[in-house]
Amino acid sequence: MGTNATVILVHGAFADGSSWSRVIPRLQAAGLLAVAVQNPLVSLDDDVAHVQRAIDRTKGPLVLVGHSWGGAVITQLGDQDRVTALVYVAAFAPDIGQSPNDTLKSFPPSAGLSGVSVDKGRFLTLTPEGMARNFAQDLPAEEAALLAATQGPVAASCFATKVSAAAWKAKPAWYVVAAKDRMLPPDFLRATASRIGARSVEVDSGHAPHLSRPDAVAAVIVEAARTA
Questions:
Q1: What three-state secondary structure class fits 203?
Q2: SS3 assignment, position 227
């Protein structure tokens, strides 16, 4: 794949598009175009529509990258002609008729759930302590505090929404397993990678390897772009 390839970066819950700020320069240095979306995080349909608009603004081949909740988004919309590869970063990858919550049912609750706050509109945020302890425990304290301040609240209903498509059935997939993840159990990440038949790369990181291990994450994305 040449330099006309575009990588669409889809953030997850408790984050925003700036969470890809360390990966984007590395992709650009490898000759790839990169677009980080700003998901509204209000529903699967809204996030899918938002990413689709980003796709429609591009030309040429595409690699879709989803972190955490963003994995459900790229699973739903990724089976398009221009999409050549999917990259999941510590992410959900439901099957048709499954919600993210469904995929977690056989795994014990994660430590990260203890730091989640729910408002009266049923939107979820991470407390500053939860962000520092469970989402970004391998980042400096000041950076974890910044993530807590800029995070995108996510509708709790997102995680109960079932996908109606599973792009990983038709597209080659890569998967970054975060070995010290405290938001999603590492064994869940490994099982998900195996279930979807992804090329799996394990990194020694918490839930946000694209921030704490950007070289490793960028290398996986570049490999997907060049191999698919």
A1: strand
A2: helix
